[in-house]
Write a structure and sequence with these properties.
Blueprint (H helix, E strand, L loop, with lengths): L2 H22 L15 E5 L2 E4 L4 E12 L10 E11 L7 E9 L4 E3 L6 E4 L2 E11 L5 H12 L7 E12 L2 E10 L9 H4 L2 E3 L9
Antiparallel strand pairs: 1-2, 3-4, 4-5, 5-10, 6-11, 7-8, 8-9, 9-10
Protein name: Lipoprotein
Length: 208
C-alpha cells in the first residue's frame, strides 16, 4: 500500500470515528418527528409522509448497520433511526417502520436507487416487495421485531414487506417499510445489499 493510500485510509477512519462520537453525544429523541394524532410525518426537511389514522405509534429504534462499498475493504457504519407503528385492532399486528439513515461518514455516498418508482406527495420513491420471517437474525430487522415483542405483541410468523425508499440527496436515505402478515418468496436483503455505496474522492485537484 503506498503512502497516499495509507493516508486516505487514515483520514477515512478519523472522520468516521469523530462523527460516530458526535452522534453518540446527541440525545435528541427521533420520536419528536411524530406528534400524537398527526396525519403526516417529516423525516427529511419538508417532505411529507402521509400517516393513516389507524397506525398507533409504538416506539423508536436506533440501529447501527454496515454498508458495502464495491472494490473496497472498508465498510461504512451508518445509523438507522426509526419510528415504529402498529395497526390498531389487528392480530397478529401489521407493522409500519419509518426510517432515516444518519451517515457517520462524509466520505461515502449512496449509489442511485434504480427500479420501479412511486409518487408520494410529489416525491419519487423506489418501490419493491419482499418477505421477512419473524425469526430473522438480521441485526436491524431483528431489532424492530424485538420492540414489537417488548410491547406485549406477537408478530406473525411471516411478513410481506413493502419497501419504499428515497434519496433526497446522495448522503441521506429515507425509507418506509410496511409489514403485512403473509408469505413472499423473495427474502428482504440486509441493509448493505439494499443500499450499495461508493467512495467520494478524498482529494480533489484545485483548478488553476
Amino acid at each position: 500500500m503506498n503512502i497516499l493510500s495509507t493516508r486516505k485510509v487514515f483520514i477515512y477512519a478519523a472522520i468516521s470515528a469523530l462523527l460516530t462520537l458526535i452522534l453518540a453525544c446527541s440525545h435528541t429523541p427521533f420520536s419528536e418527528r411524530y406528534q400524537p394524532g398527526a396525519d403526516t410525518v417529516f423525516l427529511w426537511r419538508n417532505e411529507p409522509i402521509p400517516l393513516e389514522p389507524d397506525w398507533r405509534y409504538l416506539d423508536e429504534a436506533k440501529v447501527l448497520v454496515r454498508g458495502e462499498i464495491q472494490d473496497s475493504i472498508l465498510t461504512p457504519v451508518d445509523e438507522v433511526r426509526s419510528l415504529i407503528f402498529v395497526r390498531e385492532g389487528q392480530e397478529p399486528p401489521a407493522i409500519l417502520i419509518l426510517s432515516r439513515v444518519i451517515k457517520t461518514s462524509q466520505v461515502d455516498i449512496f449509489r442511485y436507487l434504480g427500479g420501479i418508482k412511486k409518487d408520494i406527495e410529489g416525491y419519487p420513491y423506489r418501490e419493491a416487495a419482499y418477505g421477512l420471517s419473524s425469526d430473522s437474525t438480521d441485526p436491524e430487522y431483528g431489532k424492530y421485531l424485538e420492540k414489537i415483542r417488548a410491547a406485549g405483541l406477537t408478530p406473525a410468523p411471516e411478513y410481506r414487506v413493502r419497501v419504499l425508499d428515497r434519496l433526497p440527496v446522495n448522503t441521506t436515505l429515507v425509507r418506509i417499510m410496511e409489514l403485512t402478515p403473509g408469505k413472499a418468496h423473495l427474502t428482504l436483503p440486509a441493509y448493505g445489499k439494499l443500499y450499495p455505496q461508493e467512495r467520494r474522492e478524498l482529494f480533489h485537484h484545485r483548478p488553476f
